[in-house]
Structures are given as C-alpha cells and as structure tokens.
C-alpha cells in the first residue's frame, strides 16, 4: 500500500505510507513550534513526532498552543 487514509482535525487526508507525524505537519504547512498533537486520544510528545508513523485510520487532532492565562 503506497498511501494511507486518516482523519486530521475531522477532515479525511491521504498521505504516503510511512509518513511520520512531523512530515504530516510540515506537509500541512503547520508551524511545529506552536502546536500539540493528539493521535487516537493520546498526546504525542514533540520528541516522538519524527518516530511516530501515521497509520491507516488514525484520528489525529492538532491543537494550537496559546500562551497566557
């Protein structure tokens, strides 16, 4: 399988097989230093983005990080 299908912020997305979370964010033109990633209900630490592969059917949510209180 050369491509996989997943949900990104509620929208269907098709990416190349073996795409990692960091590559997914870059392909979507998302600034890496301003977001948090949740995959399947679990937070993916930024240190794991490059080693966490997207899988068929993943549900990924991207949250903007806002400073302040």
UniProtKB/TrEMBL annotation:
Q: Which domain of life is it from?
A: Bacteria
**InterPro entries from the entry?**
Beta-grasp_dom_sf, Mopterin_synth/thiamin_S_b, Thi_S, ThiS/MoaD-like
Gene3D superfamilies, alphabetized: 3.10.20.30
The record ties this protein, via SUPFAM superfamilies, to: MoaD/ThiS (SSF54285)
Q: Which NCBIfam families match?
A: thiS (TIGR01683)
This protein is called Sulfur carrier protein ThiS
Protein source organism: Shewanella algidipiscicola
């Amino acid at each position: 399988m050369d491509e996989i299908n997943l949900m990104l912020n509620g929208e269907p997305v098709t990416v190349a097989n073996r795409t990692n979370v960091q590559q997914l964010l870059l392909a979507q033109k998302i600034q890496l230093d301003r977001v948090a990633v949740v995959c399947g209900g679990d937070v993916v630490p930024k240190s794991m983005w490059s080693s966490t592969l997207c899988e068929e059917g993943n549900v990924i949510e991207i949250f903007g990080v806002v400073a302040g209180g």
